[in-house]
Amino acid sequence: MPSNPEGQSNTPKSTWPEQYRELAQQAKSPLLKAFYEAGCVDPDMPMSDVPLVALDFETTGLDPNEHSIVSVGLVPFTLGGIQLGRCWHQVVRPQLPLHQTSIEVHGITHSDIDKAPDLNEVLDKLFSYLNGRIPVVHYRDIERPFLNVALQWRLGEGIRFPVIDTMAIEAHLHPDRRPTRWQRLLGKKPVSIRLADSRQRYGLPHYASHNALIDALATAELLQAQIHHHFGPNTPIKDLWL
Amino acid sequence: MQAELIDIRNHMAQFPPFDEMPEELIDQVVGGVEVEYFRAGTQILEFGQDNTWLYYIRSGAVEIFRRSGELYNRIGEGDIFGQFGLLMNKTVRFPARALEDTLVYRIPEATFQYLFENDDGFADFVETEDRSRLRSALSRREKSNDLMTSKVTRLISRAPVSAPCTVRLQEAARIMTDQGVSALLLMDESGENPMLKGIITDRDLRTRAVTEALPSETPISDIMSEGLITIRASAYIFEAMLMMLHNNVHHLPVMDKDEVRGVIALSDIVKYESQSSLYLVSNIYHQNDVKGLKKISRDVPDTFVRMVNEDANSHMIGSAMAGIGRSFTQRLLELGEEKLGPPPIPYCFMALGSMARDEQLVVTDQDNAMILDDSFVPEEHDEYFLALAKFVSDGLAECGYTYCTGEIMATNPKWRQPLRVWKGYFTDWIENPKAEALLNSNIFFDLDGIHGNTGFAEELKALVAEKASHSQRFLTLLARNALNRTPPLGFFRTFVLEEDGQHRKTFNLKRRGTAPLSDLIRVHALACGSRAQNSFERLKVIGQTKLLLEDDLGNLRDALEFISIVRIRHQALAIEDGRKPDNNVRPEDLSPFERSHLKDAFQVVSNAQKFLRFRYNAQVGRNAQ
C-alpha cells in the first residue's frame, strides 16, 4: 500500500508534536500547513482536556486506492460533552462510480451524489474541524487512509496525524474475544468489537439509522464511555493515540 | 439540527414534554444539546452546586435524592431532571446520581428559558405536571409513603371494636384490653341498626375515670366523648392528618355512609410517616415541662422544611404548622392547670389570626385570648386566669412564638373577659364600627376555641356570622381596611420595591400578598354569614352564595396558593441555608417562572381589591365619617 499512514505506527508515539512542526515546514498546501501549524496536543495532556473530533466516512468500498468517500460526518467534542449543534455532515461526489452494493450499505443514492460537491470544495470546512483536534475513529484503517489518498489526489500531498481508535481499545480490552474451539463447544460466544456491539456493553443506546454523522456521534459517545470505565479522565493522550 | 441527527429528535419526541412540541422546536432543542456519559455510581449533580442545564436521560437510570440523602425518585429513559434548580436559582436542590451507565442530553439553560416562555406545554410540564409526575412515579414504588395519594382505608388494620353504650366502665376497659385497642367505639343499639354514638380512649380512661376514681359500675355513656369527629372512607391520609391536627383528636372513626369501617389512630399515621408533623405533635403531648417543650420546638423548622420538600400545598403546611402551635398551647394549658390546680370556673382559650385560620408558618407571634364563664368574679377568679395566661404566654415565647407586640394576648385583662363582655365587644365592633378600632380588632374575626369550653368560641362565631352580614357599614369599613395594603405592582407589571429601611429593594410577600388576600376574603366571608376561618374554606362558602363568579374564586384560590407557596419556599430556603426566615423577597432571587406567576397573582389581588371597593362602597374619602 503506497504511503500508507499505518507506517506511522512505527514512530514513537510521543513525537507527534515534533512531527507536526516538521510537517508544517514541509507542507506546500496552505490547508495542510495550517493544519500542522495548529499543532498537536502535548502527549502528556490528560484526556479530559484534549479537544477531540469524531470522524466517520461512508465510502464506496474498503480500499482507499480503489474506492471513494461519499459522505463525511464530524463531531467535535471533549470528554465532558458533545455539542450536537456543532456537528457537520456532508455528502461528497465520489470520483469513482457508485456501486449498487455500497448504496445498500449507506443509503446514499445517485441523485444525492449528483447534487453533491467534490471533496475539494469542502476542504476548508473539513480542516476547520480537524485543526487543533485529535481525530477519533472506530477502526483506524478507513478514515485516515481514505483522507490521505483523497488529499494526495487533490492537493498533491498526503496527511499524517494520530488517531484514537475506539475499536482498537475494545480489541485491547478483549484480547481473547475469539473463543477457542473448546470454548465454543462450551457455548462461549465471540466478543464483537463492532461499533454497535461495543456500545451495548456500555449501556449506550441503539441508533436505528446509519450515516456518517450518527456513526461519528456513536464513536464519540463510545470513547466517553470507554474512558470513564477503563481509563479515567487523567489518562494522558499518549496512552491512547495510535 | 442536522437532518442526520433525526434519531435524536425522534427519541425526544416520544416523551413528554417534547411529545407535544412542534418538530422544528425539538430540532432547535437538539441543536443545543450536549451529550455526556456517566458511569453507574457517578454523581451527576451535587447539592448546592451551580447548574445551568436541564438533563434528559437518553439511556440508563438516575436516582434523585433529597438534600438529606434520602432517595426521592428513580427515573429513566426519556425523563428529565435538574429543572427544580433551574426554576429556583440555578443551584441544585435535588442531587442526582447515575444508577446505571447513563447517557444524558444536557439542554442549556437559555434553551430551557426559551421553551419555558414560548411553549405552554413545556412550562406546564416542568412547573406543575412534573410534581404530579414525580408523585405518581413515587407511588409506583413498592412502598408508597405519600400522604397525599393514599386513602385512609389503607391504615385500617382490623374490623372496628365496639360495644353497646350501655356497658359499664369495667366491661369497656376489659374489652379494650382483650382486643388490644386504644379506643372503643360505643354504639346506640336501641334502633333497628346500631348507630355510632361515642368513643372512649385509653387517655379518656386515665383522665376521666382513673384520676376521678370513678366506680367500675359507672355507665360508660357518662364519660364517653359524643359528637364524634369522623372521616369518610374515601378521604386521603393527609385529610385525616389535618383533621387530627385541627381538632386535637387522636382517633378517627372511618365512615362509609353510616357504617363504621374502622378506626385510625394518630399512631397509625405516625408509623406510616414517621417524619410527619403529627409525630412532632404526638411528641408535644409527651412533654412534662416547658423545658421539654422548648427542646422539641427546635424541630418545628425542620418539619416545615420537610413538608415543603415533600411538595405539600400551602393549606397542608399552614394547617400542620397551626396544629403544632395549637398543640404547644394546649399542652402548656394542661401543664398550667396541673401546676395551678383545676380552673375555678369554665373557660375557653382562643387562638386568633393565622393560627385560627390554619394558615400559620414558621415566623409567627402569639395571638390569643380567654373567654371566661359568665359567673366570673374578678376578685375571686382573675388571679388564677392571669397566672394561667402568663404561664402559657411565657411558655409559648420560650418555644419560639414571640409575644404579640399589639398586646393581643390573654395576659392583657382586656382580652381575658367573660363571655357576655366578649359578646358586647363583637356587637359593638359590628354595630357601631369605627375605622380605627376595627383596624385593631381585625384579628378577632379569625378566632378558634382550642382548649376548655370551646362552645364559648362557637357562640362568638355564631354571633359574628349572624350580625356581620347585616351591617353594611361594618362591611364597608372592614373593606376599606382591607384596601390599606396593596400588592407591589407598578405600571407595566414591574415590582414596586421598598425604598428604604432594612428591607430596601425587596417586597414583603406577607404584607403585600397573603395578608391583603386573607383580608379581602374575610370581608366577603363575613358578608355571606360564613363561620369558616380558613381562607380556602371561606372561598368555598363564598362560592356557594354566588357573591363572586366561579372564575374569580378560582383565580383567588390560585393566587393565594401561589403567593403562599412562594413565601413558604422562601422561608424554607432560608432555614436550609441557616438564615433567619422572613417575608422579604428580592425579585432577583426569584426564578423567571416565579416572577411571572407572582405578577399574575398580584394582578388578581389588585383586581379583587377593585371589586371589593366597588362591592362594599369602600372608596376612601366616602363614608369616612
TrEMBL record, chain A:
It holds the Pfam family RNase_T. It comes from the Bacteria. GO terms for biological process: DNA metabolic process. Signal peptide: none annotated. Residues 51-232 form the Exonuclease domain. GO terms for cellular component: cytosol. GO terms for molecular function: 3'-5' exonuclease activity; nucleic acid binding. Keywords: Exonuclease, Hydrolase, Nuclease. CDD domains: DEDDh. This is DNA polymerase-3 subunit epsilon. It comes from Marinobacter pelagius.
UniProtKB/TrEMBL annotation, chain B:
GO terms for molecular function: [protein-PII] uridylyltransferase activity. Residues 156-216, 224-280 form the CBS domain. InterPro entries: CBS_dom, CBS_dom_sf, cNMP-bd_dom, cNMP-bd_dom_sf, Diverse_CBS-Domain, DUF294_put_nucleoTrafse_sb-bd, GlnD_Uridyltrans_N, RmlC-like_jellyroll. Pfam families: CBS (PF00571), cNMP_binding (PF00027), DUF294 (PF03445), DUF294_C (PF10335). Residues 17-116 form the Cyclic nucleotide-binding domain. Keywords: CBS domain. PANTHER family: CBS DOMAIN-CONTAINING PROTEIN (PTHR43080:SF2), CBS DOMAIN-CONTAINING PROTEIN CBSX3, MITOCHONDRIAL (PTHR43080). This is CBS domain-containing protein.
